Known about the structure:
The complex is a heteropentamer, with one copy of chain A, one copy of chain B, one copy of chain C and two copies of chain D. Chain A is built from 14 helices and no strands. By secondary structure, chain A is an all-alpha fold. Chain C has helices spanning 2-10, 21-62, 83-115, 118-131, 136-187, 193-222, 232-256, 260-268, 273-302, 305-310, 330-338, 350-382, and strands at 73-75, 80-81, 317-318. In chain C, strand 1 (73-75) and strand 2 (80-81) form a beta hairpin. The longest helix of chain C is centred in the middle third of the chain and has 52 residues, at 136-187. Chain D is built from twelve helices and ten strands. Chain D has a six-stranded mixed beta sheet, sandwiched between helices. A four-stranded antiparallel beta sheet of chain D has the order 2-1-4-5, with helices on one face. In chain D, a hairpin with a 2-residue loop joins strand 1 and strand 2. Chain D starts with a helix and ends in a 5-residue tail after the last helix. Chain A binds chain D through residues 117-118, 192, 194-205, 208, 212-213, 216-217, and chain D through 98, 100, 103, 105-106, 128-129, 131-133, 135-138, 140, 142-145, 154-155, 158-159, 202, 205-206, 208-209. Bound molecules: adenosine-5'-triphosphate (2 copies) and magnesium ion (MG) (2 copies). Residues 61, 66, 84, 86-92, 104, 249, 275, 277 of chain D line the site of one adenosine-5'-triphosphate.
Amino acid sequence: MVTRLIDSRSRSAIAASIQGRRIDTGGLLFRSLLQSALVLTLVILAVLLVSVFADGWSQIGGRLGEFLSGTLRSQSKDAELGVHQGIYGSLWIAVSVAVLAFPIGIGAAIYMEEYAPRNRFTSFIEVNIRNLAGVPSVVYGLLGLAMLVNGDIFGLDRLTGGRSTLSAGITLAVLVLPIVIITSGEALRAVPNSLREGAYGVGATRWEMIRTQALPYAAPGILTGTLLSMARAVGEAAPLILVGAVTGRLGDNPALLDLGALSERFTALPIVITSWTQQSGRDTGFAAAAAGAIVVLLVFVLIMNSAAIGLRNRFEKKRG
Amino acid sequence: GDDESVSNAGSNSRTDNGASATGPDAVSGNVTISGSSTVEPISIRVAELFEDIAPDVSVTVDGPGTGDGFKLFCNGETDISDASRPIKDMEKDSCFSNGINNIVELKVGIDGIAVMTNAANEAIECLSFEQLFALIGPSGEGTATWAEASPGLPDAPLEVFGPGEESGTFDSFLEIVFEDLAEEQGLEATTRTDYSPSGDDNVILQGIQSSDTSLGWVGFAFAGNASGVRLIPIDGGDGCVEPTPDSIASSRYPISRDLWIYVNADKAAANPAVSAYVDFYMTEGLRSAVGAVGYVPLTEAARSETRDRWASRTALD
Amino acid sequence: MTDASLIGAATVTPDMLRIAAGRRFREVLVRYWLLLAALVSVVVSALILWSLLREAWTFITGVAWADTWGQQGWFPRRGLYDIPTIVVPTVIVTAIAMVVSGPLGLGAAIYLSEYAKPAVRSWVKPVLEILAGIPSVVLGFFALTWIAPNVVGRIGKPAFLVIGLAVMGLYTVVAAVMVRSRLKRYRDGSSDSSALIGVVGALAVLGAIFAGYLFWLLNVLGELAPARAGSLAAAGIGVGLLTIPLVASVSEDAMAAVPEHLREASAGLGARKMTTATTVVVPAAISGIVAALIVATSRAIGETMVVFMAGGAADAARFTDSPLDGGLTMTAAMASLASGTDNVVGEGLTFQSLYFVGLLLFVITLALNIAATRFVNRVREQY
Amino acid sequence: MTDTATDTARGTVVETTATTGTPHPLALGFRATAKTITPVEPEPAASGHTVLHTRNLNVDYGQFRAVRDVSFDVHQHEITALIGPSGCGKTTVLRCYNRMNDLIEGARVTGTIEYHGVDLYGEKVDAVEVRRRIGMVFQKPNPFPKSIYDNVAYGPRVAGQRKGLGEVVENSLVKAALWDEVKDRLSDSAFELSGGQQQRLCIARAIAVDPDVLLMDEPCSALDPIATARIEDLMQEIKQEYTIIIVTHNMQQAARVSDMTAFFTAEVHSENDNRTGILVECDHTDVIFSNPSDERTENYVTGRFG
Amino acid sequence: MTDTATDTARGTVVETTATTGTPHPLALGFRATAKTITPVEPEPAASGHTVLHTRNLNVDYGQFRAVRDVSFDVHQHEITALIGPSGCGKTTVLRCYNRMNDLIEGARVTGTIEYHGVDLYGEKVDAVEVRRRIGMVFQKPNPFPKSIYDNVAYGPRVAGQRKGLGEVVENSLVKAALWDEVKDRLSDSAFELSGGQQQRLCIARAIAVDPDVLLMDEPCSALDPIATARIEDLMQEIKQEYTIIIVTHNMQQAARVSDMTAFFTAEVHSENDNRTGILVECDHTDVIFSNPSDERTENYVTGRFG
Ligand SMILES: Nc1ncnc2c1ncn2[C@@H]1O[C@H](COP(=O)(O)OP(=O)(O)OP(=O)(O)O)[C@@H](O)[C@H]1O
Ligand SMILES: Nc1ncnc2c1ncn2[C@@H]1O[C@H](COP(=O)(O)OP(=O)(O)OP(=O)(O)O)[C@@H](O)[C@H]1O
Ligand SMILES: [Mg+2]
Ligand SMILES: [Mg+2]
């Protein structure tokens, strides 16, 4: 062994051994494969955005004002065709998510991270939340149908007005609740323990510690999670189909802030898109209308997501 | 010619409804309509025209299907129910048992049912009911070519597309074409199961377009101006007839069904908005809306009959 | 003050070591409010189960089970509830989706975490995360109006053939690797004859799956109809696109979480980037990666709008196992059932079948999620 | 001087080498310091009023017993150092005195700890209030992500104080020997301070709630020599007002600053090799470092440990 | 002996106290050790064949110059220690020798490093090969999440070796003085080892590719005294076969183990207070610790630094 060491360490041997670099073709191939995967992904998604935008141009380019203020119509060339009713529905769905899912979700997260003792029951709740997050959205639609529309229990339909914006909002709030809990929980878990100990160390109670240290520190993460879940809710269509969104004609076209219409029949942007896509066979003009509605929805959703992601990244940088 | 009809609608209706105590523009209130997705476009179109002269009336129209429509209607949840078939007795009974006794049945239009094949398929000039039953009916189960299903027809691969059972078009087709033959042959009046059903008429068209010797049926309103498909003349016993608005309106074309709306007379009495809407339906609606959305308008005679029914509020019993 | 405090300190009574009652009360109050919030999630799952079971039970007890298997297809109006008719398309769509999103997503993730310059990464990652939020209706529309004609319509059949074979090849490789690692462990003597049984077992199972897949592939290729406007393939690709960002960003997180010092250690031993990536980073992040894939799978199974819009079937459907046909997935079947009928309502079990399918879907996805958690935990323990 | 040093040194080393094979110059270091302190500080009044009276203290983490049967007293205005090899339970014991262990899932404390004669774990005692009176300084400086001012004012605020905060903050910073360095930038983020300054800020934060005892867990282990020296001086000053318990790995530090030293070690259980911490002896610091009564102590402080 | 020790000790302390206000017994510690090593080890042949020849080495991270104008030689079969205050560029310099800095975005290395006369950053040189010849042990033990066996076998496998791995693994583990402790559990996860064992595993892993030079970045900073002693002994043994460069914060360690010591410090630029690392002097260890030629070194090693 030692002998081998000696000769292998002779100057010339060393020199030779580290020189004569060969290009590593396998590595390069691997790299370019991965790279093309990424590029392809981005390209496809770009095509999606571009093609949709192009399809919808005749609506959003030509008559944006009317399109935003118009309503569901029977013919695509109708001058009053537009998505205002859809926007109303989606807006209030977002609001009900904010009002219902956020406080409950964040509260639950705080309990799970800061209070819950480590026992069977707690881990049961945890598993339960994780699984809820994996339940398909149609199933939540069924829940909404049974509870809020048919009032199979507690006769909740009397409260929601049956197939109403309210029912849709509540259903989607329930749908995103687990997401809110999980993301907020992760944000809270990222709070360094030294902060907690520091607060306790000078005689803060648990809630004082949470209010003054944990929550402020976790705020950006929580906000990110909530924004993402709100975007998710606004984009969901399947549950709304089951909760009975209107695809034909909505009698009135409520002003955005008209609370009265909350318990009325409703529609929402994703539903408008679906319905118009299906009608595009009878009346091809509806394809463009659907694309236009998609652009409106995407603006809605992508802005929320960008805000969320941007926010998170800024704080991640600040904290190294 | 649609925009004109809108403007006419304005003027005409004013004169027509001059009789009624208050002009529609003074009326306000809500009208709730649900039911057949086939009739839905008509009711919506009427509502859109009506809105111009009665801006304070809000009409909501939904199209879950005739059956769902009657369910709501008989629960008193809707004022008017669109239907692509007459109400069934059990539905009527459930209405009565819920104290909805004054139901006015109004025929508003006709929808032909077009039997189609791929535009490239010149071989088929005409099909008789027997042939249709042989091709699409239960006896056709498992047959792969036209000839196999019905001797005499070309020996070309057969792919069948049509509406699913959810749709009234499906039921009407069975009722009109199959019922009697099925009885004669002691078979069930239904389709073969090995066909491609779809609730979305586009999918049916796409299917027919995608296969050269395909066979299928959809509502005439939908097929009328579709490309890549050929509407097949049908022999209902007295000769081959092409489906055209005229042949359908004059019911020379054998496969067509009537479209209906059912009005809850009590609600109409209590709610001027409803009666005003139906009044308008009876005039502008029957005249321009039906045609505008691709259906076949009633003959003048049929229209006046419908108007009378409404005028006299003739209820079902 | 010093002295005061000292005197005080010298004589301490238990009461001096208590906080104000109000403060203590607030603590208790807050605690129970939060507990309440946490319990909501339990209530929700209870309600879901309850509402599913209530109707589904009527179906399960009422239905003629002969009509749920080996029938022509899914014809709820005619009392034919052929379950394979809606399950097989679900499997096909999911499989296609994963064939699309798996390689693309993982490839993108590895590139981002191992190769991309920080500058690139810092804008691509957010873009991916933002695109992860594209609603499914959008992809439904895209699948129907663009993918169907331009991808499936044009290169449907050959592409399907190629990909089919590629998947088979990939599968073979994976299987081979698994078997070899088992064999290696056996040869290392690090475990006894049980390892050999493991090898045989693995071979058997993998072989069986392989054969099944081969059979299906050939069978389908035989009867492949020309692509329709809407088809399972189009829907599958749509769902795949929907899940790429999910797979990419989740598994990228997992790989980014692999400590830098492991990469340095590997590089320090003269490993090239590719080696480091494949033998250190990916194994270390495997739990996260698998989790990402499973989550994506269950998302694909549960995806509704894309298949409803672009799947090429509604209401009812004949049984099909060809990706280029239109077909009815479980979710699409539910959406159809929910969108009404011209027939007399209340006849038969149609409405109940809606909840039955829902229950089926619920159970499948639940099983997947549990499997994911299990797997992740097991791998975590290992490392 | 170097020469003498060297001689003795070489002496020592040869000797120690004999026993362990590696030289342990540390040994020399300690002895030296230990003694050198004696003249500087007056012998502490061991009779000084007992602040914390610990008897048969056991701490278990779930199934695992971390510390067994610890008994010793801490006297007012003295600095008591806890030393011992890593994992012997110093931190664990320390955290018993302000009931920090209550926060750890499954941690169980048995035995008695009396604080001025009051059972610290008694029925009516509130951990929160205990933590206010018995402050803690941690291993890693852990200022809050707030301004310097808010960091110090935090404790009084949660305790409900609203008025006179400015005064409290100034006094505390002065006591923590930080005032001059930060008085012009009280509203800057605490993170802009150096590690040493941050640690003194944490001390100021602890002082601000006017505690009676200060617990310090390796307060200097994250700091450089200069910062360390500062903190050590500071401790000498504030011990006039507070009773201090300090955990340290650095035996020279213990020797330099403490009046009393408690040496812990871990007894290994052969069956499962769990390690349970035990108190070997607690005595005047110079005794512990010059001629401890227990051989394990001797081995440890001379670095001949193990 | 304690007496003499104490005397000298008190002497020193008094002296140092005079200068800085706090006692610095550390100083004594070093001096002692430094000298004590001399008799034990033979004076290293400074003329020993030069393995790494560094001239005017600069390292920049983007705009920021981390190290400036470093020049010194490393001789075969010697242990060279790099010491200096935190942030003075020790790690940076060390990482230049196996081209680890290539992996850092924006890191730029200028100047010449010759390895057995070959320019390490030359055109035709393959960084990957370099890293195989010049192994590295990191500050934190960083075993792979694999079995002990796979950890050691990793390097050879990467190098394409397939046969005789078992042998290589055994030899490496034996050299790393770990074999006896793990020979029965080679297939266990490396994470089940203690910190000290993990670090020795990492050494074994580095040895397994039969390198020529070993770079160690504070290999003991995360370990307890016992584990540290083990590693130090180990280094003494393997230096017969390898050339070793070690970065350490622990000056006693440098004094104990190294033949040559290079002292780095950071010069602060007043305008932007960037700190650039510079080599102050590199000399025989005992010289550095007993009577260094540069005053900054003196201050540092006596702890009077800053
Ligand atoms: N939260 C905990 N849960 C379980 N075991 C713990 C916990 N904290 C500490 N331990 C165990 O208790 C024993 C004592 O730990 P402790 O931190 O008190 O030792 P220490 O003397 O402070 O060590 P060091 O000097 O490294 O700080 C150790 O075996 C440790 O593993
Ligand atoms: N990857 C990097 N990018 C930018 N700057 C760096 C990087 N690594 C180190 N530096 C900077 O280079 C300087 C020298 O760092 P280095 O880690 O070499 O010092 P060191 O002597 O090893 O410190 P320590 O003793 O704490 O390990 C420091 O100012 C550090 O901030
Ligand atoms: Mg500790
Ligand atoms: Mg370093």
